[in-house]
Amino acid sequence: MPPASPRDTYLEVSDSLRQKIEKGKIPEKLPSQAKLMESYGVSRSTIERALGDLKSKGVIESVQGAGWYVVGTGDRRPLVEKVTDLLRTDGVRVGDPFPTEKELCERFEASRTAIRSAIAQMEGQGLIGKGATRGREVRALPIGQGDRKA
Known about the structure:
It holds the Pfam family GntR. This is GntR family transcriptional regulator. The strands form two sheets. The chain has a three-stranded antiparallel β-sheet. A two-stranded antiparallel sheet has the order 1-2. The termini are far apart. The longest helix has 14 residues, at about 10-20. The radius of gyration is 19 Å and the shape is elongated. By secondary structure, it is an alpha+beta fold. Helix content is about 40%, strand content about 10%.
């Protein structure tokens, strides 16, 4: 088979991603565009075209601020809700340090801008704030859905 023209590279990327999804190698959330660019050695526009092709075929969907997901999978809640869930984990108390922006970016595979937006919302709700030293700390614990009375 002759090598694909540069104009068809996005189709090769799209086909490769589709095969990985079908084989379960990508079960839910796709890697970030930056990671895909690095993995395939292609430009952002090529990755965007490949993702657009998969979206048009109903294989993946975009979730604003969260990335690309295999259709029918994944946590579609807003990022702020996912980050707030960190305060619902066992053992978290008022005064405890809150993770850094870098740690949150890595954990949620989200951009620094998206993380900063979630942090700002949480600060606005009084859940976290600037600590006595560098960094943020837990100021209040959120009321969980299980804690609400009907």
